[in-house]
Specification:
This protein is an alpha/beta fold. The protein is 22% helix and 25% strand. The longest helix has 18 residues, at 20-37.
Length: 182
């Protein structure tokens, strides 16, 4: 059985992002972002309903302050009482799961999207992804970047401006570039 490019993407295999099905999914997400980002003055109830239109899961009390940007939306899963402040970016070519009670500062970026390391692979236009999993009751300071394939354990703290290149243990505090335990 031959997999579609979308199936390859969701499986973490190399895929072609220019595939018509994936381009249509991105166009849908772009149109949604225009509506969502124009909804800053709307009530949290209205914004939550908009989130539910696109995301894989939106827990009770989850809040994202616009502006917000993503690739597809359907791979994003928010637990209850999750909060993302202004100007966050989630590149969700694979699952991005954010656990209950997690607080995320402004300008945080989470990347499930990845690229081949060798130049020939990048020239081919192929991409792949690795999931990003954020545990429960995590605090991520403003401007932090979470790289593909990273899991952050429950109760961890990521310092503002940190670049998280590897998994973070539950309860740990990491800071810097690359982020390291304090």
């Amino acid at each position: 059985m031959t997999l579609t490019e979308k199936q390859k993407m969701l499986a973490g295999e190399l895929y072609r992002p220019g595939d018509p099905e994936l381009q249509a999914d991105q166009a849908r997400a772009k149109a949604w972002m225009v509506r969502y980002n124009a909804a800053l003055a709307e009530t949290p109830v209205v914004r939550r309903a908009l989130l539910a239109e696109l995301f894989g899961r939106v827990g009770q009390g989850a809040v994202i302050r616009p502006p917000f940007h993503c690739d597809y939306g359907y791979n994003i899963h928010l637990g209850d009482e999750v909060f993302l402040n202004f100007n966050c970016v989630i590149l969700d070519v694979m699952e991005v799961r954010i656990g209950t009670g997690t607080q995320i500062g402004p300008g945080v970026q989470m990347y499930a999207a990845d690229h081949p390391r060798e130049a020939e692979g990048r020239r081919s236009g192929l991409e792949f992804g690795r999931p990003v999993i954020i545990g429960e009751h995590v605090w991520i300071g403003g401007g932090a970047i979470i790289l593909p394939g990273v899991t952050v354990g429950d109760g961890a703290v990521i310092g503002a401006g940190s670049v998280v290149t590897r998994d973070v243990a539950a309860g740990a505090t990491v800071v810097g570039n690359p982020a390291r335990s304090r």
